[in-house]
Amino acid sequence: MAIDIDTGIPVLANKIGGLSGKPIKPLAIRCVYEITKKVGIPVMACGGIFDWEDAVEAMLAGASAVQLGSVLATEGLSSFHAICTGIQAYLKRKNAKNVMEIIGLAHKY
Known about the structure:
The protein is mainly alpha-helical. It has helices spanning about 25-40, 50-60, 70-75, 80-95, and strands at about 45, 65. The model has no long low-confidence stretch (mean pLDDT about 95).
């Protein structure tokens, strides 16, 4: 929750909100890791994905897809290109043909 100190009015229309953005990423990575150990369906990571490293970390934890939210509000649509370009460079550096080769790799250790 946030309150405008000049007006005394809550900033959010619903008055309260949830935690989002960068602070929630460690919890999101943990959830993806734990959930993908137990289910046999694709899982999407959401929460705290702000750059290509965050996206790769989510994939290594088991995410088949990542959702972008807060980064769009702070960085704009250019974040899509930056994240995709970073992932492609990472895959090339790791000699991976596509993202399918890195999804869930953290489960092997």
